[in-house]
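User: For a reading group we're discussing how well predicted structures match intuition. Take DUF6479 family protein. Before you show the prediction, I'll give you the sequence so everyone sees exactly what went in.
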Amino acid sequence: MIFVMLVIGIFLVAMLTAAMWWDSRRRDEFVPPRADEQPHQPDHREHIEEVREEDEGTFPPGERLLPYNMKAFSSHSTGKGREARPKHGKNVGGGAFGSGGLGG
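Assistant: Thanks. Here is the predicted 3D structure of DUF6479 family protein, as structure tokens, for the group to look at:
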């Protein structure tokens, strides 16, 4: 029984050593891209972040709604801009466990 475990252990060590050797050879063959092959920053913004607020009123219960019935219940822009965005920074905690806030 001990002999079998010893053979299995030696086999696993050999497999891990071979995998590390193969990976090092693969990494040596990798050539990083040249500066002219790097991606460039686009001339325009890719997306716009908006702060959205909840719709007023209640959602109609019990009915099956189709997309054209969702007039007042769809997402829409508030038009408030960046001032309404939540504050992020070094001294602002999110309130979740491990967020670094003061707790309490």
